[in-house]
Amino acid sequence: MKAISVLGSTGSIGTQTLELACEFPDRFRVVALTAGNNLDLLLEQILRHAPEAVALADGDMVPQLRERLEALDPARQPARLPELLGGPEGLCAAAAWPSADLVVTGIVGCAGLLPTLAAIRAGKDLALANKETLIAAGPVVLPELAKSGSRLLPADSEHSAIFQCLQGTPWADTARLSTGVPTPGLRRIQLTASGGAFRDWEPADLAKATVADATSHPNWSMGRKITVDSASLMNKGLEVIEAHYLFGLEYDAIEIVIHPQSIIHSMVELADTSVLAQLGWPDMKLPILYCLSWPGRLPTPWRRLDLTEVGSLTFRKPDPAKYPCMELAYAAGRAGGTMPAALNAANEQAVALFLEERIHFLDIPHLIEQVCDRHRADRMDSPSLEDVLDVDGWARRATREAAAALQARLPATLPA
Ligand code: NAD
Ligand code: MG
What CATH number should be reported for the domain holding residue 134? Predict the structure, then answer.
């Protein structure tokens, strides 16, 4: 029985992980949960899974959760109330919860960094969904992994596909995961991208894109931030940096290919030109389950892939002019050091402003580019954790300032 902790349990990744715990009750038991502010769902999860610890991002909400648990009909109360924790220290304590074997990181954004590091320092294996943490803090996270011996198993579907393709190659020596050491025999990675919400839009129409347009993904059902990242292709750009840190390949050897059907989840090319791919319906439960069951596999009753039903699989190169975020991410990845942290924070802040309808969709790359340009002179090669957190905070402020300047220049084009 594997004991798992789920960070961000009320989100898209978190709820799907808990569905897996329900589907395999004799394989997985849930020992810790963390969440933002969805107390209704969190309460249901506590009743269902009876975790030992629960942490809320906002410590001030803990008394409310305690009251709601204590007010429950005694017949519905869990046999033992979980230890209730709150605030940044509470999230870290839940992430490092002693009885856990594996921690699923489903927090969105760089907010996941400190809990992820707490889990690594406690020697836990991780199922990494929270890619922003690795992207912002790769130079900090990789040495911590090497020190603690924690294994970073990729839950992102593309990186899971690559990980699955590499089983059985010399790379399968798992000590190599996330060491930043080039993978023997691995020549190229091809990350597949659905193309997101604007896949079939003309570039000229993107100026009219609304929040509703950008948050309706054609193939995957995910949280709002990553859905906007998919529409801008920043998600794929972030995944290029994620692949660089996970598999140790240089940026020239990591390519993006648009594959509208999202059936091939990514491909690897080996030294002899052989290409391996992993296929499946677009459903995050499969890559999450592989993290939970690795190195084994569990039988599931899920719908089996039928390629005759799919008909055809198509591929095309992404248009850099339509998707400027993609090139910004490659440039930040190549610059390395703290530049990906600046890119990631600027993107998180710009996407938040877009979701609040304070900037336009096309302002997102514009703001990120300005912030990365400003950071160039201050970029650090081997940052400490504090340096990464400072750059993250600075880049968020710089993005808000750049957005305010934009607003001042173009008042008529922005909603009040
Ligand atoms: P989501 O918005 O659905 O859920 C985010 C979770 O994090 C929620 O439980 C929320 O309460 C919690 N949270 C939000 N802000 C927080 C904060 N400041 N502190 C602590 N907790 C906070 O997001 P998601 O789509 O599940 O994505 C989670 C992560 O997984 C992201 O990094 C995303 O890039 C990655 N990912 C998601 C998918 C997917 O299918 N959803 C696929 C691949 C990777
Ligand atoms: Mg992905």
Answer: 3.40.50.720
